[in-house]
Design goal:
Strand 1 (19-22), helix 2 and strand 2 (39-41) form a beta-alpha-beta unit. The protein has a 6-stranded parallel β-sheet, with helices on both faces. By secondary structure, it is α/β, with parallel strands linked by helices. It has helices at residues 4-14, 27-33, 50-60, 72-77, 80-87, 119-126, 137-143, 174-186; strands at 19-22, 39-41, 66-71, 93-99, 102-103, 109-110, 130-134, 154-159. The radius of gyration is 15 Å and the shape is globular.
Amino acid sequence: MLDKYTCLQKLAARRTDELFVTTMSVSVPWSRLSDGPFDFGAVDSAMGHGAAIAHGLALAQPRRRVIALNGDGSTLMGLGGLVTIAQYPAPNLTLVITENGTYEVTGSQPVPGAGIVDYAAIARGAGIAEVYTIETEAQFDELLPRHFSGPGPTVMVWKIARSNEPVPKFEQSVRDRGRRMRQALVV
């Protein structure tokens, strides 16, 4: 199992000008590492929509890498988005699915199918060719550069240990975070 916090630290240390969309249990730890105009914490009623938001950004910003940090529960709520990503591929999109088997920020209720659902197989079945499952730190380190480059769309399934994040709360509204990103992209 991977440690989510270690993975996020390594990702943040390597980032340059990529756009990041975070949802639910990765939003708070990611905002401690990176909270600039290219970071969009999509937690205000966006559960299940982070991948779709990131896909739209990737299509609109084809010269910039977009990385979505999405939970397994959020992915499960938006499975149809994988088909859309495959049908309208964005070569600059990386979708990370943090799989811990729980809806962590709402009380760690089990995600339906936890331990049974194979998110990598579902992504491949939807038509996405570049799919990786990462279970060890050695695998993570080997594939870390792949999060930032190469042909996409790419799906990375991180098998992470359970943790206990609180409900994410941001000082800025989702509207203000969106405006901040839009203004940074116009410059």
